[in-house]
C-alpha cells in the first residue's frame, strides 16, 4: 500500500469516527459517569458478549452494593445517555386488557452498543452464544474489541442475499460474498431517540461495489461506503475505548 493510499484511509477513518462521535458520543457520555456506574456499563457489555444475555435486575443491584434504588437510577441514566437500549415500559389497561406503552424506552435493558438481545438483521455467534449486533459496523467490531472468534450472519440491505463472515479479531477467515466484493454502507442521520432504532438501521451490508454505489447515489451527501477492512478498523476504534479509562 502506498503512503498516499494509507493517508487517505486514515483520513477517511478519522472523518467517520468524528461523524459518529458527533451523533453518538458514547465514550464522552461514559466518561461523565460515576465510577460505579461506568463499571456497571462495562459489566453489562461483557455479560452480553460473554454469556449472550443481559444482566438481571438483581445482578445490576448487586453491582451497586445491593441498592435497588441506585440500580434503577443507574439504568435510567444509562438509558438516557443511550449507553444501553431498553425495552418499552408497558401497563395493562384494566378495562380493555391491552398493553399500553407508557415509556417507549423505560423498560428492561435489552442491549448495549455494539450488541443486543433484540432481533436485528445481524445475528452473531460469540463465546458459544447467539446474540445480535445493532448494525453491520457493530457486528464487525465485536471480534477485535472483545478478542473472541465471531460468526456473523446477515443480509444485503438491498438484495436480501445472505452475508456470512467468520472473523478472528481483525482477520476475516471466511466471507460470503467474497471479501473483495462486500461493502458496508452508512447513511448518516440525526439521532432523535435511540441510535439502535434510527442510525443503526442504516449501517448495513451491501453485496458488492455496484450495489453500494447505487445505494449511495440515492443520497450521496449522507452516505459513506466502506470495505470490510475499513469497517473493522472503524468499529474497533469507536468501541474499544469503552472498555478502558
Q: Secondary-structure element sequence?
A: HHHHHEEEEEEEHEEEEEHEH
Shape: globular
Q: Total helix count?
A: 8
Q: Please list the strands of the largest sheet in the order they lie side by side.
A: 1-4-5-7-6-8-9-10
Instruction: Compute the separation of the termini in Å.
Output: 33 Å
CATH topology heading of the domain at 113-245 = Beta-Lactamase
User: Briefly, what CATH class of the domain at 113-245?
Assistant: Alpha Beta
- Which class do the helix and strand fractions yield? alpha+beta
- Tell me the number of strands: 13
Q: Examine the secondary-structure arrangement and name the CATH architecture of the domain at 113-245.
A: 2-Layer Sandwich
Unreliable residue runs? none
Bin the strand percentage. 15-25%
- CA radius of gyration is 19 Å
What does this structure look like?
By secondary structure, the chain is an alpha+beta fold. The protein has eight helices and 13 strands. The chain has an eight-stranded antiparallel beta sheet, covered by helices on one side. Helix 4 crosses helix 5 and helix 6 packs across helix 8 (228-239). It is globular and about 55 Å long. The model has no long low-confidence stretch (mean pLDDT 91).
Q: How are the SSEs ordered, and which strands pair?
A:
Blueprint: H1 3-23, H2 26-31, H3 35-51, H4 57-63, H5 68-80, E1 85-86, E2 89-92, E3 99-103, E4 109-112, E5 115-116, E6 123-126, E7 129-133, H6 136-146, E8 149-155, E9 162-168, E10 171-176, E11 183-187, E12 203-206, H7 209-216, E13 223-227, H8 228-239
Amino acid at each position: 500500500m502506498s503512503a498516499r493510499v494509507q493517508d487517505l484511509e486514515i483520513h477517511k477513518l478519522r472523518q467517520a469516527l468524528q461523524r459518529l462521535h458527533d451523533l453518538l458520543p458514547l465514550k464522552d457520555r461514559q466518561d461523565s459517569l460515576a465510577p460505579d456506574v461506568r463499571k456497571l456499563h462495562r459489566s453489562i457489555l461483557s455479560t452480553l458478549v460473554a454469556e449472550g444475555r443481559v444482566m438481571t435486575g438483581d445482578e445490576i443491584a448487586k453491582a451497586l452494593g445491593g441498592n435497588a434504588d441506585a440500580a434503577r437510577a443507574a439504568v435510567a441514566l444509562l438509558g438516557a445517555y443511550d449507553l444501553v437500549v431498553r425495552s418499552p415500559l408497558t401497563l395493562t389497561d384494566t378495562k380493555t386488557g391491552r398493553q399500553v406503552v407508557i415509556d417507549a424506552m423505560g423498560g428492561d435493558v435489552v442491549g448495549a452498543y455494539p450488541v443486543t438481545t433484540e432481533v436485528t438483521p445481524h445475528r452473531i455467534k460469540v463465546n458459544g452464544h447467539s446474540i445480535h449486533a445493532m448494525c453491520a459496523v457493530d457486528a464487525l467490531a465485536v471480534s477485535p474489541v472483545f478478542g473472541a472468534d465471531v460468526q456473523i450472519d446477515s443480509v444485503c440491505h438491498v438484495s436480501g442475499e445472505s452475508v456470512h463472515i467468520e472473523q478472528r479479531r481483525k482477520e476475516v477467515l471466511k466471507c460470503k460474498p467474497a471479501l473483495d466484493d462486500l461493502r458496508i454502507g452508512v447513511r448518516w442521520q440525526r439521532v432523535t431517540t435511540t441510535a439502535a432504532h434510527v442510525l443503526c438501521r442504516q449501517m448495513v451490508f451491501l453485496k458488492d461495489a455496484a450495489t453500494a454505489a447505487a445505494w449511495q447515489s440515492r443520497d450521496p451527501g449522507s452516505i459513506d461506503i466502506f470495505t470490510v477492512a475499513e469497517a473493522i478498523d472503524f468499529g474497533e476504534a469507536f468501541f474499544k475505548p469503552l472498555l478502558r479509562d
